[in-house]
Amino acid sequence: MKCRRCGDPAVIDLRRHNAGFCRECFLRYAREQVRRAIDEHAMVGAGERVLVAVSGGKDSLGLWHMLLALDIDADGLYVGLGIDEYSDESAQYARGFATRHDLKLIEVDLVDTYGFDIPGGSRAAKRAPCSACGLSKRHVFNDAAITNGYDVLATGHNLDDEAAVLFGNVLRWETEYLGRQQPVLAAAPGFVRKVKPLIRISEREMAAYCVLTGIDYIVEECPMAVGNRHLGYKELLNQLEERSPGSKAAFLNHFFDRAQPRFADEVTEARADLRPCASCGAPTPSTPDGEPVCAFCRMQARAVGKPISLQVAP
Ligand code: Q46
Ligand code: ZN
Questions:
Q1: What is the pLDDT of residue 247?
Q2: Which numbered atom of ligand 1 lies nearest the CA of 118?
Q3: Which residues surround ligand 2, an ion (CB under 5 A)?
Q4: From CA 148, how far away is CA 49, in angstroms rounded?
Q5: Whose atoms come closest to the Cα of 119: which ligand?
Q6: Separation of alpha carbons 297 and 130, rounded Å
Q7: pTM of this prediction?
Q8: What is the pLDDT of residues 84-102, one digit of tens each?
């Protein structure tokens, strides 16, 4: 097979585009997809400070690399989740990348800063590990970005991730989640802008990008992912993609173009109803009685076995 753009021998075959690419043209194609997502959705403005949440995996490290290749300065944020050796090892990859490219990496360790890890938080809050983890990451990412003065927080969610989340949201018609599932979640009081520049790139393409650019990333999956609902949705969507290349991208892109705006009001309404958490100050849904305390602070209090400290004046 030959490269669609230059005719040299192809190193990767992208069935959904019915095309092969050589190394150079593939890297250019991948960066163009990111540039297009950033421009189409006005993800990053001129001079804005960008923080990339990195896990040590291919998507987040690949994203960091691509942003720099596109002349977008970005610092990294690594959150230590305390998931056994997996966290120790993934931290090494994130640090290794930052050191090799002479980049700034901010590190937040859940145990050191908040007194609990994901397995402990999950048990204490009686939440599935990935639910406890998602809650913690959302809280810490937002807090770290705001505390350190960043305008934008970028995450490495790729096309496969977003299509699987969309599938799960549609399966249950989670209208508020559908409203929230956007390439860009605008900034609001207490919230930094959140962007997903990889929505046009598949998981396989990200792996190829990292291999072809020599990015060293953690290949093992998080041990807590076993049995995770989204993995099942990914497998289903992969079967569909196998039979009908391009289905995944059509499912996601047409959602963004045609359906997502119909649910956007739900997010506006939900955000209008937020008040500062009485413990940490992060925006959280108001309660009919008493001070609102966010789900993260409630989980932390249960995990460390101490009462919630109410520090923020109502
Ligand atoms: S790190 Fe956390 Fe993932 Fe591990 S516990 Fe689940 S959500 S699988 S991206
Ligand atoms: Zn809180």
A1: 97
A2: 5
A3: 277, 279-280, 294, 297
A4: 10
A5: 1
A6: 17
A7: 0.95
A8: 899 999 999 999 999 999 9
